[in-house]
Amino acid sequence: MDVETSLSWRGPYWYAGRRPRRNSVGDTPEDLDVSLLSMYERGSEPPTALPAAIVVDPAGMPYTGSEGFFGWLMNLIRKLPCEVPFYVLTSSDEELPEDIQATAIIDRVVPDDVLLMLICIHQRALLRSEEAQLRRRIFGRIPGFGSAPHHSGTSSLLVVGLSGRFLEWQDASEQKVEVVGAFDGNMAVEFMSKRAFDAVVVDAPFDDAIDYMQQIRRDARFAGLPVLAVCEGEEDTVSLFRNGASDVLVGENLKETLSRRLVSALRFGKRRRLADRILAESHMWLRQQINEGGLGVEYYTNYLETCSNALAVRGLDLWEIRLLPENFGYTVSSHEERNEIFRTLLSIADATSRDEDLVCLVHEFGPVAVLKNEAGTARLQKRINSILTHTNL
Questions:
Q1: Is residue 287 part of a domain?
Q2: Model confidence pLDDT, tens digit, residues 56-89
Q3: Which pLDDT score is estimated for 147?
Q4: Residues 298 and 347 in one domain
Q5: Out of 1-15, 142-156, 180-194, 356-370, which region has the weakest mean confidence (pLDDT)?
Q6: CB atoms within 10 A of CB 242
Q7: Residue at which a domain ends, from 279, 302, 325
Q8: Domains contained in the chain, number
Q9: Would you call 152 helix, strand, or coil by DSSP?
Q10: Residue, of 174 and 55, whose pLDDT is higher
Q11: What integer pLDDT is reported at residue 360 of this predicted model?
């Protein structure tokens, strides 16, 4: 399964109730974590360091009404300089505040390593969404420009399995969400390759559910898609999480709680789908600019400045690599040879980088790659050097 295993940005965890544990490499010193309840009770100001995530478990917690702790917390979140992943841990029979806007609402038995993985996935998803909005703002709208089938369609929920609760899922989702049924994992992947879905519910016996989720997660296109699994007993919950579930719905769920958990997953999935589509269309459009002399310098410099400022809020840097032959110890003797190696370098960078990285030809500058982390630049440089060393151009 192609999933995130490292944080895009590091910082303290803001928590109330259940406290996330450190991962194996240790994100930040323990004393930088922030107890939201202590801050609420003391009326103290939040720290300046941007949190890696906010995790709240309201079980047995006082002051959780919308006018109490949660109202205070939502106001605090709105004042953050940028969006961060926000999780509410719950169970099937707990009531939740109506106006809560969480990145995900998850069963509280989620293992610590799975929760960390979800934080990594959601951090990257936020950066991808911001990158998509930035490109739309700077480069303009590129409607239908090379959009793949699995990026297209209206807001939809895919229900996999033969439980007979199809109408219950229709009732729990928003009115504008189309609910589609699939008998098994093979049918689900076939449907998902032909149109976009914002979330998946796997409602099947345990062994079948594991098989269906693994089939979905094996496809890199759906690695970050919200997948909710249903199980009758708590003993299977951890196994479902470890085999690809983003959330696990145990036994009978309160109608309102089920709806909020499902709507939360659909909201995140829709945002992911729209970002994927914009980035895919942008990628195709940028490739076409190669045949037209490259992206304009003004567009490019505007992009660099805007993106750099957005990343700085999270303490991240933008890394620009000029993909010129001389920067890799390669000498060219003609204009034709230079154009040929330009295309080769762009092709290598395109294959090595992520969708949210900008790889393009810039007029007057030549080919460039703009990446969101230093590790990506080292990986790209190593790949280019390796190919140039063993290729006759």
A1: no
A2: 998 877 666 656 888 889 999 999 999 999 999 9
A3: 64
A4: yes
A5: 142-156
A6: 14
A7: 279
A8: 2
A9: coil
A10: 55
A11: 95
Same domain, 80 and 162: yes
Judgement on whether residues 22 and 165 belong to the same structural domain of the protein: yes
Same structural domain, 172 and 28: yes
Calculate ∠ Cα 331-335-336, nearest 5°: 100
Closest CA to 49 of 84, 94, 91, 3: 84
Q: Are residues 29 and 164 in the same domain?
A: yes
Main-chain phi, psi angles of 262, to 5 degrees: -70, -45
Q: Are 341 and 242 within one domain? A: no
Buried b (16+ CB within 10 A) or exposed e, 248-274: bbbeebbeebbbbbbbbbbbbbbbbbb
pLDDT exceeds 90 at position 336: no
What domain range is 310 assigned to? Answer: 293-389
Flag whether the pTM goes above 0.70: yes
Could you tell me whether strands 178-182 and 247-250 are parallel, antiparallel, or unpaired per DSSP bridges? Answer: unpaired
Alpha helix stretches (DSSP H) within 176-254? 185-194, 206-217, 237-242
End position of a domain, from candidates 257, 279, 301: 279
Tell which residue, 133, 84, 64, 118, has the closest CA to residue 279. 133
pLDDT greater at residue 19 or residue 326: 326
Q: Which of 333, 331, 323, 334 has the alpha carbon at shortest distance from 290?
A: 323
Taking 3-state DSSP, the helix, strand and coil percentages for the chain, each rounded to the nearest 5, stand at 45, 15, 40
Looking at the fold, whether 58 and 192 belong to one and the same domain comes out as yes
| Residue 176 and residue 316 share a domain | no
Q: What confidence score (pLDDT) does residue 19 get?
A: 58
Name the packing angle between helices 335-352 and 374-389 (round to 10°). 130
